[in-house]
Every structure is written in structure tokens, then in C-alpha cells.
Design a protein that fits this description.
It is built from four helices and five strands, in the order βββαβαβαα. A five-stranded mixed β-sheet has the order 3-2-1-4-5, with helices on both faces. 48% of the residues lie in helices and 20% in strands. It has 147 residues and is an alpha/beta fold. It has a single domain, classed as YqgF/RNase H-like domain (Nucleotidyltransferase, domain 5). The radius of gyration is 16 Å and the shape is globular.
Length: 147
């Protein structure tokens, strides 16, 4: 499950069981930490989620600002309350890319506003899934990338 955590909304995306494709699921309008965690927990259970990827909105120079710190605090709280592992993943420019994609697809402004956070979450999750796959793939006997 991928989350694009903002102050007002949380975009939610899911990866398919094979780990190849991410797709947007929903947008949660934030009301309280308790309710937000409860909704995410219900979605995680319903979709048999094994890991949560929380978007980390780094600044363009790579440093962490206030929003990134809020995302980290939220992610740590999810991990504590839900007992699922949480991974933080760079989400720079995913909202911009999501908006461009939706405009290109002819999505009306009102619909874009409703769905942009979920689309951004799916782009961030797709980036994570692609990276994970690239680490396990081999090319002509060359071992995969290791940290």
C-alpha cells in the first residue's frame, strides 16, 4: 500500500499481488489521527497489505522539511498502531506528474482535485515497486544491485 500523506488528504494506492503494478485506490479526507489510522488499517486488512510505503516529500536538494517530518511521524504512528512495516520513499514531483497525466487524459479540474492525491500515491508506489524489481532482476548472469 502506498500513501501520499498531506495535511488535508491522504492518497491511497495499492500494488497488485505480483508487485508489478500500482493503482490508485482512494483519497481519505483527514479528520483525526485515530480515524485516519483506523481507515488505513481497515483498507490494509481488506486488501491483505503486508507493507506500507509512505511518500517522503523531500525538498529538491534532498533535505527533509516540515512536511517530510510530518509524514515520518505519521508513518511511525501507523507502524506502531497497525503492526505493519512502514518504508519511506521519495515522492518528489509526484503530484506535479499526476496533474500532468490527468490533464493529458482530459480529466476535468473538479475530478483532478478529487483524485490527484491517489494518483500521486500510485506514481510514488510504482517507483518503489520498480526499484524493488530492479534489485532482484539479473541481466545475462550479472547479479542484482546490492546495498
Amino acid at each position: 500500500m502506498g500513501l501520499d500523506v498531506g495535511d488535508k488528504r491522504i492518497g491511497v494506492a495499492l500494488g497488485d499481488p505480483t508487485g508489478w503494478i500500482a493503482s490508485s485506490l482512494t483519497v481519505i479526507t483527514r479528520t483525526s489521527l485515530k480515524r485516519d489510522v483506523q481507515i488505513i488499517g481497515e483498507l490494509a486488512k481488506e486488501h491483505e497489505v503486508q507493507k506500507i510505503i509512505v511518500g517522503l516529500p523531500r525538498r529538491m536538494d534532498g533535505t527533509l522539511g516540515e512536511q517530510a517530518q510530518k509524514a515520518q511521524a505519521f508513518g511511525r504512528e501507523l507502524e506502531r498502531r497497525l503492526g505493519l512495516p512502514v518504508v519511506f520513499w521519495d515522492e518528489r514531483l509526484t503530484t506535479v506528474a499526476a496533474e500532468k497525466m490527468m490533464i493529458g487524459a482530459g480529466v476535468r479540474r473538479e475530478k483532478r482535485r478529487e483524485r490527484i492525491d491517489a494518483v500521486a500515491a500510485s506514481l510514488m508506489l510504482q517507483s518503489y515497486l520498480d526499484f524493488q524489481r530492479s534489485r532482484t532482476r539479473t541481466f545475462d548472469g550479472i547479479p542484482p544491485y546490492e546495498d
